[in-house]
Every structure is written in C-alpha cells, then in structure tokens.
Amino acid sequence: MTPGLRTSARIVALAILLAALAAAGCAAEREATCPCPEAGSAALPEELMLTLASARALHHQADLLLQTGEVERAIEAVRAILALKLESRWPEAEEVRLDAAARLGKLLLGKGEEKEALALVERELGAGARESFYLSNLQSVRGEILEARAKRLEAAGEKEPARQSAREAIQAFERSIQINKRLQKQLLERGRR
User: Fold this and answer.
1) pLDDT of residue 10
2) 3-class SS at 50?
3) Is the confidence at residue 111, as pLDDT, over 60?
4) Residues 43 and 10 in one domain
5) Mean pLDDT of 171-191
6) What mean pLDDT is predicted for residues 136-149?
7) 3-state DSSP: the chain helix, strand, coil percent, rounded to 5?
8) Containing domain of residue 135, as a range?
9) 94 and 3 part of one domain
10) 118 and 152 share one domain
11) Are residues 118 and 157 in the same domain?
12) Is 31's pLDDT higher than 70?
C-alpha cells in the first residue's frame, strides 16, 4: 500500500486520538471556553466515537479496494463516510468530513470526473467549516482540481478559460497557505502562554 492510500485512515485515527487528548486536557485545565462535557461524564459522546470508528473502518476499506484496483467500490466507501452523521458541532467530525470530501474529490478527479469533484469540494467549502488543517487541505484539493482543468483546457486550445482556471487554482492554493499561516500563528501564540 502506498503512503498516500494510508493517509486518510491515519488522519481519522489521529482525529480520534486528538479528540480524546483534547478532552482530557480540557478537563484538566477547566477552561471557561472548554467545549468538553461536564466533569463526570464521558470525554466524548459515544455517538461521536462510534461515528469516528466507522469512518476509520471505511477509510481502511477504501485503501484496500484501491489497492486491488476497485476504484468504484473505493469511491462508494468514501461516499459512505460522507453519509455518516458528521456534524460540525464536533470539530473531530467536521475534520473527518472535510478529509473524506478531499479524498473523494481526488478520487473523482483521478477518474476524470472533474466537474463532480469540483462541485463536491466547493459544496464542502461553502458549509462554513472552522479553520483547520483539513479546511486548508480541502482548499488545496480545490486548487488541484482547477489546475487539472486548466491543463485540460490548455491542451484543447482554450487559452482564456485555461488561464481563468489557473488563476482560480492559484487563489485556492493561496487560501490554503493563508489558513495554514493563521493556524501556525495561533499555535505559536499558545506556546508562549
């Protein structure tokens, strides 16, 4: 299995771990703005943990299906992740949803379904997700899709539409970079406290 195929499964596992660690740290610090449940209750709702575990299993299925060349079935496995109850009220669920949308966008682009890939990614970007690595990644995937479109249009001799797609791709990559810069700044500021 290539490293790229394992990335999404690792991201989901990391999201579960980070969720558990964040909840534990939040409870320990007793911050006023802490989104964690009250003391004495579970660190994370069981519903969320089950949903994250399902997403992880579906990513593993997709990895194996891709490894055996069953791209359509892998796409269905990733679509099944997006069909889970991944509510934005839980940052971990939102991150898994954004990650799955990015993965599905790339899979669709790989099949030549550029229009569907772009529509999916733009729909997720329009959902108002909080800034995170996963949102930044989704912006990058949008840039990759638009870059592929620009190359296709250029090869077809459609110079102006190709340039427009290239400009949009550059803007998507720039949004990704800016999100990452803001997140890095936040991390540095937290480290100084």
Assistant:
1) 53
2) helix
3) yes
4) yes
5) 95
6) 98
7) 80, 0, 20
8) 131-193
9) yes
10) no
11) no
12) no
State yes or no: pLDDT of 172 exceeds 80. yes
What pLDDT, on a 0 to 100 scale, did the predictor assign at position 7?
Answer: 57
Instruction: List CB contacts of 54: < 8 A, sequence separation 6 or more.
Output: 81, 84
What pTM was computed for the model? Answer: 0.78
Residues contacting residue 103 through CB under 8 Å, at least 6 positions apart? 8, 59, 62, 78
Q: Per the structure, how many domains does the chain have?
A: 2
Same domain for 65 and 119?
Answer: yes
Chain-centre distance of CA 163, in angstroms? 27
Residue 144 tokens read as 């990759």
Query: Within this chain, do residues 136 and 94 fall inside the same structural domain, yes or no?
Result: no
Residue that has been written with the tokens 């540095």 in this structure = 188
Query: Is 191 in the same domain as 155?
Result: yes
User: What pLDDT does 191 receive?
Assistant: 86
Q: Give residues with Cβ within 8 angstroms of 92, minimum separation 6.
A: 15, 16, 18, 19, 44, 48, 52
Q: Are 77 and 62 in contact (CB under 8 A)?
A: yes
